[in-house]
Amino acid sequence: MPKDLCLQIGNKLPNAVESQLFGKPCFKINGKAFVCFFENEMVFKLTGEMHNEAMAFDGSQLFDPSKKGRAMKEWVQVPFDYKDSWERFALAALEYVGAK
To answer: For the whole prediction, is pTM greater than 0.85?
Structure first.
C-alpha cells in the first residue's frame, strides 16, 4: 500500500520520470532524483522551511540508506503516518530539484 501511494504521487507530478535510487523506486527530474520510496516511507529532497516542516514530524529522520551514520542532509524520510503530506512534499522536492 505505501509503495502504491508513492508511485501514484510520483506519476502525477509534471515531468517526473520513474527510476531507481539505491535499488528503490524513485522519481527524477532532468536526471536528478527528488523523491524515493524506502522502508515503507517516502523520502524527499528538500530545503528551507519545507525541510524543517518535514523533519518536525514524529519519526522523520535524515535519509541514511546505508545505516552507517552517513545521512544525506537534504533528504528527509517521512513516515507513512504522515502520508497526507507526502504529495505536498513531493511537489516541493520537484520544484527544488527542478530549479537547480
So the answer is: yes
